[in-house]
Design brief:
300 residues, 22% strand, binds uridine 5'-triphosphate
């Protein structure tokens, strides 16, 4: 059986980013850089690699610079042209989605992730879509995380949630799914809960910010009440949709970094720098020096 293709992706970027203040006072957290490109660029790259054709951003106040980032900068190009830096112009333009491939809508108040997704309903229409939370960056040896999920969707259809194992002591910080375990890395989901109190989580598989969802989620979100943290929660809506449709959990074969936390953000910078051929050796040397210094200080 063939399933409707996944052509569109939503990027909710309307959150306040309070954990990164003061950096995010005047700048969106999605524009913080991992090595040399903004977090949001890396997430859009993952979606493009997976074959996404239309990129829908749910933005809020102070987020205009994200729209500018995905546009050409005529003045900058003129200066680079004069300097003969044609390769840089090409590199910049290669990163851009094509004309008409981006849409921006507003979430006037950050009422929660579920509400942000609902704000994109008219732009998505009646077709399944991908949802990528820019907080989470992934690094995979082969196919991108979303591509691996789409491969599973093409076989199974329905709804797919990207999951990853976390320590038992961290299960209260994430949405958690329970599954019927099988041999591969794609399992039927039997339940889900948002930020369960420690000791009550049904498993240690956390929802890691990548989803493929059917459009019926929008009619559930429309009437939804506030849940955990007094926010309109996507997990609650998916829980309701699960009564009508199949959900599978997919564990990708790479690494993920929770860039919504400072440690995750810093670790992502290190991991992406070490994966970058022109930086790897020099940076590894500096990193070793720093760690050696730390060890000798601790020994004194
Ligand atoms: P978070 O709750 O992690 O992001 O939401 P935040 O609110 O920006 O961060 P802190 O906790 O204050 O530091 C996860 C993702 O969902 C988006 C955020 O922008 C982020 O990408 N989001 C969240 C919205 O777009 N709207 C919302 O109402 C809530």
């Amino acid at each position: 059986m063939t399933h409707k293709p996944i052509r569109k992706a939503i990027f909710p970027v309307a959150g306040l980013g309070t954990r990164f203040l003061p950096a995010t006072k005047a700048m969106p957290k999605e524009m913080l850089t991992i090595v040399d490109r903004p977090i949001i660029q890396r997430v859009v790259d993952e979606a493009r690699e997976a074959g996404i054709e239309h990129f829908i951003f749910v933005t809020g106040r102070n987020k205009g610079v994200i729209e500018d980032h995905f546009d050409r900068q005529a003045e900058l190009e003129m200066i680079l042209e004069k300097k003969g830096k044609h390769d840089v112009i090409k590199q910049l333009n290669d990163l851009l989605p094509g004309p008409g491939q981006t849409s921006f809508t507003r979430q006037q108040e950050p009422l929660g992730l579920g509400h942000a997704v609902w704000c994109a309903r008219e732009l998505v229409g009646n077709e399944p879509f991908a949802l990528l939370l820019p907080d989470m960056l992934t690094q995979s040896p082969g196919d991108s995380c979303l591509k691996q999920m789409i491969n599973n969707y093409n076989e199974k259809g329905g709804n797919i949630i990207g999951v990853e194992e976390v320590a038992d002591s961290e299960t209260d910080q994430y949405g958690i799914v329970s599954i019927k375990k099988g041999a591969e890395n794609c399992w039927p989901i039997t339940g889900m809960v948002e930020k369960p109190p420690l000791g009550t989580a049904p498993s240690n598989l956390m929802i890691m910010g990548r989803y493929i969802l059917q459009p019926e989620i929008f009619s559930i979100l429309k009437d939804q009440r506030k849940g955990a943290g007094n926010e309109i929660q996507l997990t609650d809506a998916m829980h309701s949709l699960m009564e009508m449709q199949d959900f599978h959990a997919v564990k990708h074969n790479g690494m993920s970094f929770d860039c919504g936390s400072r440690v995750g953000f810093l670790t992502a910078n290190v991991a992406f720098a070490l994966a970058s051929p022109d930086l790897r050796n020099d940076f590894a040397k500096e990193l070793r020096n720093l760690l050696d210094n730390l060890t000798s200080q601790a020994a004194e």
